[in-house]
Design brief:
The complex is a heterodimer of chains A (about 240) and B (about 625). Chain A has about 240 residues and is α/β, with parallel strands linked by helices. In chain A, about 45% of the residues lie in helices and about 15% in strands. Chain A has a single domain, classed as Ribonuclease H-like superfamily/Ribonuclease H (Nucleotidyltransferase, domain 5, 2-Layer Sandwich), CATH 3.30.420.10. Chain B is α+β, with helices and mostly antiparallel strands and about 625 residues long. The chains are: A alpha/beta (about 240), B alpha+beta (about 625).
């Protein structure tokens, strides 16, 4: 494919999508990989799902919180329920504490995505076991707008694994690390206060705090720029 | 969700709780959270100015400076709910100290530009951060204590807010001293008044007559009503300035045992107030209690006084009484009780063979008794060379001591002994004892409370004589001052590592701390040392501190005074509460039951005491004695 055709294709794709999503175009080019981590805008996010089956299940809520470097902004958040595009399973209702009535009154994923992308802008996304969230996001993006997520995504799990292998200062500080890898076990292990669980916003908040803890140990390992961070943490 | 939680947090965190809704929202919107692992240095001494004010959400930090010899001098520890970095933020100067996390710590970070904007609109914030903690927040803390104490608080605070001038109901009515008794009685009837001021030819008040005087001194004695009125007037005229508060007037009446006071405004007689006026003002007047004590014909009657006193104090607390009001009243009532009991004893034993003065020292001497009063008494006997008289006197006082302790316990006012035969001595004997103390204090370990001695019965000048002699000795014997300093600093403030309260670990008072020995006593003892040093003769801790501040510019004095007033009132609140719930009235408090602001205030107070101790230790030899 020639460059001209490629450009045309892109133009076509992005012309039809709502404004906030159009910013996805050229995002990767705009990214300054040499930026120091403390200057990078991050958004930690989490989704709740009807289930984990990629074919059948769908998103029922999205929560996100803004960060800059290691600073979390607890009052700069995004949270929305989503009218599911699939059946709500009874067993997952208990986990989320969200009822079918709540969800029927919620906006469509299409509208929520527009707002969500407006919120995240060019930020680097953070999540824990984030590939699942990205997979479901991409599924919805493709279905409604025909595009894929362009923001770089970092997994706190990956950073943890890297610190585990490379940084004795970190494991010394916490007198060993954890073998349980889920968000709550990790949060507990690193002394974070778990206030309310299984809500997309609170989980995103917890993930942000976990990321915040890990970030403090990175300069000691020579990780100072976004590029270096992506090398060890990219999902 | 998170935003609302954050707003709630800041609404509860002084000084931000004074901000309006909009400013709180602006603040919260910009607030960031930062994490510092233990050991992390957040600000560096001589490093760049702080970019933000930080509020600790979780964890502990220490503030320290490194001296030229690389010594680490710790200035402070701060934990949850406390701020740091403000001075550097406001001044824009380099940070003066290093701030380091001693535990894994999370802070809320308030960026400088937002903080400055909000401060511009709310100058009170500036004051909070830059001025001393105590001067600005004591009243609010006290309000918190009061709210905890009582959910409702009726608006009637008149005794403590009304100047005595404001309750004068009419112009003073006077009559010349050479008028007849009959004239005076006619004026009183015509004017419908219960008391009349007598003036001399120059119009200056020289005395007073009341209905009671007419009854007792005229009718009962069949005195001729044509006699001049000055023969029956009482000439003990006590004045009070019209600007003084009613409560002070009340206390004066109790202290001098009188029922009327002349109210003076800019040198002119403005009128007269009687206890009756106060009763109109206040449903439950302490004067009723005084009357009851004075008129008790049997000692048993006095056994109801303690519970009545609790009720009156409870009412006064609700009305917003301050520490010196309460302390003054409790001390006066206690003195009255003791004097009345001694009346009964003298009636029973007859007068003693030698004349004597009864004195109170310590809390009573300073007029600082609490509702769990530690009364220490002593007796000064007239000097004599007559051995037989002395033997008789000693025998007399053996009985006197037993009876006094017994009766006070019996009427359930004080259940510990207030007087021992050891404390009954002739004037010269006392002086010799004081001299021995001064010469070898660390061995004899005299009671430092003796400095605060006050006669409550008998020849006042004997007490003053002893006091002055002791002060003289203190001036001559450095070792005695060193001893006072030593016993003072031995009583460490109950703040442990990271400024946590040190409480009893086991036993009856598990998780509690003693507000009297750990809160009041250190302040009293320290203030006394500084006051003696400066030759201040006042005995009350509050007055000592006021003078230290006004005359000697003593930097801590204002704060310490507020701290003392706060702790005293808190203790009285606790004691009243214990009494009302039927518990034993003691000096203990569980600090965890206090509100946030109260807890912080108490910690600040203990920290202040620690600072005072540092000062004492710098100025005196405080080697520990076993």
């Amino acid at each position: 494919m020639s460059l001209a055709i490629l450009t045309k294709l892109f133009k076509h794709e992005y012309k039809t999508v709502p404004l906030p999503l159009r910013a996805q175009k050229g995002l990767k080019k705009r990214l300054n990989l040499k930026k120091r981590i403390e200057e990078v805008d991050f958004v930690s996010f989490d989704t709740e799902l009807t289930g984990l089956d990629f074919q059948e299940d769908s998103i029922i809520s999205i929560g996100a919180i803004r960060m800059k470097g290691g600073r979390i902004f607890p009052a700069q958040t995004f949270y929305s329920l989503v009218r599911p595009e699939s059946e709500l399973k009874t067993d997952s209702i208990v986990v989320h504490g969200i009822t079918p009535d709540d969800l029927n009154a919620a906006p469509d994923i299409k509208d929520v995505l527009v707002e969500f992308f407006e919120f995240i802008d060019d930020a680097v996304l953070i999540g824990h076991f984030v590939f699942i969230d990205v997979k479901f996001l991409d599924k919805a993006l493709k279905k409604h707008f025909g595009i894929k997520l362009q923001n770089p995504v970092i997994d706190t799990f990956n950073i943890h694994e890297w610190l585990y292998d490379n940084d004795s200062a970190f494991s010394r500080h916490y007198r060993g690390m954890t073998t349980k890898k889920d968000l709550f076990s990790m949060a507990r292990r690193y002394g974070l206060l778990i206030e309310q669980s299984h809500n997309a916003l609170y989980d995103a908040y917890l993930t942000a705090q976990l990321f915040q803890v890990f970030l403090r140990f990175l300069p000691g390992c020579g990780i100072n720029t976004l590029e270096e961070l992506l090398m060890i943490g990219r999902a | 969700m998170l935003t609302e939680e954050l707003i709630e947090i800041f609404k509860k965190t002084p000084p931000f709780h004074i901000l309006n809704e909009r400013d709180i929202e602006i603040l919260v919107e910009s607030v960031a959270m930062e994490y510092y692992p233990r050991g992390y240095k957040i600000l560096l001494q001589d490093g760049p100015p702080s970019d933000a004010l930080r509020l600790i959400k979780k964890g502990v930090i220490k503030v320290y400076v490194t001296s030229e010899d690389d010594d680490e001098i710790i200035i402070d520890y701060r934990s949850e709910g406390e701020f740091f970095g403000i001075i550097s933020v406001i001044s824009g100067d380099r940070s003066r100290a290093t701030v380091q996390a001693v535990e894994d710590t999370i802070c809320y970070v308030i960026p400088k530009d937002i903080l400055m904007k909000i401060m511009e609109r709310n100058p009170t914030l500036n004051e909070y951060f830059l001025k001393s903690y105590f001067l600005h927040f004591m009243d609010r803390t006290y309000d918190e204590t009061r709210k905890r104490f009582t959910l409702f608080c009726h608006g009637d605070r008149s005794l403590f807010t009304t100047p005595v001038g404001a309750i004068i109901r009419r112009e003073p009515v006077t009559i010349s001293e050479d008028a007849s008794i009959w004239d005076a009685a006619r004026v009183m009837t015509a004017e419908n008044i219960g008391s009349l001021i007598i003036t001399n030819k120059a119009g200056v008040p020289v005395g007073l007559i009341t209905d009671r005087d007419l009854r007792e001194r005229v009718i009962a004695r069949k005195r001729d009503v044509n006699e001049e009125v000055r023969h029956i007037m009482s000439s003990s005229l006590i004045r009070i300035d019209a600007n003084e508060l009613c409560f002070e007037a009340l206390l004066k009446m109790i202290r001098y045992n009188i029922h009327h006071l002349l109210v003076i405004e800019s040198g002119e007689l403005k009128g007269i107030v009687s206890n009756h006026d106060f009763m109109l003002l206040q449903g439950h007047s302490p004067l009723v209690l005084i009357k009851e004590i004075d008129e008790a014909q049997q000692i048993e009657v006095l056994s109801t006084i303690k519970s009545k006193l609790f009720r009156i104090i409870s009412g006064l607390l609700r009305d917003g009484a301050k520490a010196h009001n309460l302390a003054g009243l409790i001390t006066e009532i206690t003195e009255k009780i003791i004097n009345r009991v001694v009346d009964f004893i003298e009636k029973r034993l007859g007068p003693p063979p030698l004349s004597y003065a009864l004195f109170v020292y310590g809390d009573g001497g300073r007029r600082e008794l609490t509702l769990n009063p530690y009364v220490k008494l002593g007796v000064i006997l007239e000097d004599t060379n007559n051995v037989t008289t002395l033997q008789h006197t000693n025998k007399y006082f053996e009985e006197f001591v037993t009876l006094l302790n017994e009766q006070l316990r019996k009427i359930e006012y004080i259940d510990t002994a207030v007087l021992s035969t050891e404390e009954v001595r002739c004037f010269t004997e006392w002086k010799n004892l004081l001299k021995q103390w001064a010469e070898d204090p660390f061995h004899i370990r005299p009671d430092e409370d003796f400095v605060d001695l006050r006669v409550i019965r008998g020849a006042t000048e004997w007490g003053t004589g002893l006091s002055e002699y002791l002060l003289l000795l203190l001036g001559q014997h450095d070792e005695l001052m060193d001893y006072y300093a030593t016993v003072t600093v031995e009583n460490r403030p109950p703040l442990g590592f990271l400024r946590r309260f040190v409480v009893d670990k086991t036993g009856e008072h598990k998780d509690e701390l003693n507000l009297y020995t750990k809160g009041l006593k250190p302040i009293v003892d320290s203030a006394r040392i500084f006051a003696i040093e400066k030759g201040i003769s006042d005995k009350s801790t509050i007055k000592r501190l006021t003078k230290l501040s006004k005359r000697f510019n003593f930097e801590y004095a204002d704060d310490v005074q507020k701290a003392f007033e706060y702790i005293y009132t808190l203790l009285i609140h606790e004691q009243v509460q214990k009494f009302e719930s039927g518990s034993i009235v003691d000096d203990f408090i569980n600090p965890e039951r206090l509100g946030t602001l109260e807890k912080k205030t108490l910690k600040e107070a203990f920290q202040l005491i620690a600072n005072l101790y540092d000062l004492i230790e710098k100025n005196y030899k405080t080697e520990r004695v076993s």
